Structure formats: C-alpha cells, structure tokens
C-alpha cells in the first residue's frame, strides 16, 4: 500500500476493524517514512462469469437496471430497487464464492423480487427460467398463490392465538 502523502511503497497496519455491515475492513495505516497515518477500506471483489465465458466485476447497478425493466409501470421506487440490489449482493457474498455465473445471480434476484412485486417477479422469472408457454406462467402463478395463501393462513393463525392468549 503506497502512502498517499509521500508515495512510500510500504505501510504498517496500526488498527483493523470490520465495517458496520461486515462487508469490508477498515484499516488505519502508518507510513514508516513520513510517519503520517491514513485509512484504507478493503472489500472482497466479486466476479461474474457471463454466458460467453467473459468475466467482469459484480455491479449492483447492473442488477438495478435489469430489475428496473421488469418493474416498469409497477409501484416500485428507486429506493426499493437499491435495497433489492443490496439484499442480492449480501446473499451472494454470504456464499463465500468469489466468482458466480450470471445465471446464478439472476436466480438469486428472484426471491427478493417476489417479495417486492409479484408482477415484476413473473416478468423477470419468465426470462431467467426460460418460460416457453402459457403453462409455464400458469405454474408460476399457481406457486405464487399457494405461497400467498400459506402465508395468510399462518398470519391468521398467529392473530387467533394472540387474541386467545390476550383473553386468558
């Protein structure tokens, strides 16, 4: 690490701490030549392997742009898209892998997108899961309905149990 003040090619780490989100490390360094201190932030790089075999750095912006197309005309804000991209990146980083296929990233997007907007989810899934017929859409809609009904039944059961315990 070059000193930003005198350009000396070496530095000594004085202190290391993980950032609040745990995705990076903040290091205080001291130059042995000029004795000035400076801070560096280190993050692990993620690479995406495209279908063509080319590799490029991971980009939240690419996730946002891809999902934005699926969300066109839907009540989804830019903040929602940014949060979705953050959730996807956190999920990808938690795998511990430094290289991922673009297809795997697309599949990782599906869960948070389903929670955000079901119509956008269907649009995005139709591309990433290669829907080729109406039956593919019908099957995806059936799964969405079953999951929603299951979640509603679970919520209704919790409300009933809560009301019963409040009466006791």
From TrEMBL:
Residues 46-136 form the ATP-cone domain. InterPro entries: ATP-cone_dom, NrdR-like_N, RNR_NrdR-like. Binds 1 zinc ion. GO terms for molecular function: ATP binding; DNA binding; zinc ion binding. It comes from the Bacteria. Residues 148-157 have a biased composition (Basic and acidic residues). Residues 148-168 are annotated as: Disordered. Its cofactor is Zn(2+). Pfam families: ATP-cone, Zn_ribbon_NrdR. A zinc finger (unnamed) spans 3-34. Keywords: ATP-binding, DNA-binding, Metal-binding, Nucleotide-binding, Repressor, Transcription, Transcription regulation, Zinc, Zinc-finger. Negatively regulates transcription of bacterial ribonucleotide reductase nrd genes and operons by binding to NrdR-boxes. NCBIfam families: transcriptional regulator NrdR (TIGR00244). Belongs to the NrdR family. This is Transcriptional repressor NrdR.
